[in-house]
Structures are given as structure tokens and as C-alpha cells.
Design brief:
Layout lengths: L9 H13 L11 E2 L3 H8 L3 H13 L3 E5 L5 E5 L17 H12 L1
Antiparallel strand pairs: 1-3, 2-3
Length: about 110
């Protein structure tokens, strides 16, 4: 995983995680790995000033974590660079955990 290839602050990491959480992850869509949210909305979530969110967004852009795309009404859209870094490919097979899940379901029925 190459997500931490450069040092970023906790606020920048939080911003990046929120961008990733709000992005469209359906690879069939034109807006794959893109989110559209204003700095004002982020400032409410992170508890930072709107200008501080914009500053951290620009640092993430400068370090190559995101791309800034033009949106509607002077807003910016954020594209996550290297979206594969946000997913962990499991080792082994999913069927190995099937019995565990059925046992959990059986105990909840009791």
C-alpha cells in the first residue's frame, strides 16, 4: 500500500479519508473516484475553518493525493489519485469464513 508515500498531517489525512468515503467507487461511472463537496461542508465536519480546509486540500493536491477538477458554480470536484491504494485485496478465499458467519447467525436466533 502506497497511501502513505509522503507525510501528511492528521487534518489532511482526515480530509483525504472523507473524500474517499464520499467518492463514487463504481468503476462503470464517469465520476469514478470523484467527490463533490464544498470546503464549507468539510469545515463543519472537521471543525476547521473553511480557509484551513482549502489550505489542506491544496497540500493534498500538491503532494499528488488528489486532483482538482472544475465543478458547477465555481465549486471544485475532487478526484482521488491511485484509488487502488484505498482497497485491501484479501488473501485466501471468502468461503473459508462462511462457517464462522453461519455460526454467528445461529447464536443470534437463540
Amino acid at each position: 500500500m502506497d497511501l502513505f508515500r509522503q507525510k501528511i498531517t492528521f487534518a489532511q489525512f482526515g480530509l483525504l479519508v472523507i473524500y474517499a468515503g464520499l467518492a463514487d467507487w463504481d468503476f462503470r461511472h464517469k465520476a469514478f473516484a470523484v467527490t463533490d463537496i464544498s470546503d464549507r461542508k468539510f469545515s463543519n465536519v472537521l471543525g476547521l475553518g473553511k480557509d484551513r480546509v482549502g489550505f489542506n486540500r491544496k497540500i493534498l493536491w500538491a503532494k499528488g493525493y488528489i486532483e482538482l477538477l472544475k465543478g458547477k458554480n465555481r465549486s471544485s470536484r475532487i478526484k482521488i489519485n491511485r484509488p487502488e491504494d484505498f482497497f485491501h485485496k484479501p488473501k485466501g478465499s471468502v468461503s473459508a469464513h462462511k462457517d464462522t458467519m453461519s455460526k454467528i447467525g445461529d447464536t443470534q436466533k437463540m
